[in-house]
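During the reporting period the student researcher (J.K.) took over the structure-prediction task from the postdoctoral fellow and processed the backlog of single-chain submissions. One of the processed entries is reproduced below for the supervisory committee.
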Amino acid sequence: VQLQAFGGGSVQPGGSLRLSCAVSGRLFSNNVMGWYRQAPGKDRELVAEMITGGRTNYAESVKGRFTISRDNAKNTVYLQMNSLKPEDTAVYYCKFSQRGMDHWGKGTLVTVSS
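J.K. obtained the following structure tokens:
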């Protein structure tokens, strides 16, 4: 299983970015696709995840600002990030989980600064 993420960059506070992550390889129908982030000096944390059936789980800090979605036909997960704050600055990683195994993509840097 391979994951390729796109969409990081620099944005001013209050701005928006959209991350995408395409998953390829041997995939099974029941899985979880999600996004994590790691800020400098901090542990990696869950941002948002979505299971195949559509149930979602968000970190409290991003609720109402970020939206996760997925296109099962394209095996792609998206993270729409609005109203970005400086504390959202981090390396964002996509994660794909199936049959008890986790697969990670390379991180993409998101910088929120004026």
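The committee noted the following: DSSP finds no helices and eleven strands in the chain.
J.K. will present the remaining backlog at the next meeting.
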